[in-house]
Amino acid sequence: MRVALIAHDRKKEEMIQLAVAYEPILAKHELYATGTTGQRIMEATSLHVTRFLSGPLGGDQQIGAMIARNEMDVIIFLRDPLTSQPHEPDIIALLRLCDVHRIPFATNLGSAEIILKALANDEIAWRKIVHEEQKE
How many domains does the chain have? Predict the structure, then answer.
């Protein structure tokens, strides 16, 4: 599965803790992240992460483009709901794309852990079915 990891500035430490705690699960998947988040994950773990631009500089839109091409399976976006974000329209567009393409989208540690445990138990199998149908 292709998993995007995104975190607002005040949530980056939580993302690092999540990546460390779930490293064995994440290591089995293709990981993508926005700039600094991806760098910090790679520094704290042995995970390889394909990095995009920082979110405000277009990284969210790069991940959105992958969703539109059905090249992304899961989004974990630890959002800071208490801080205004200058690129909020990009975040809303990303959420909308996930809804349109039925992509699981976690916005906090609780929902992220549920998705990661589902990945560990191969319980997001319907995404694999979508990939198989595209090959035909």
Answer: 1
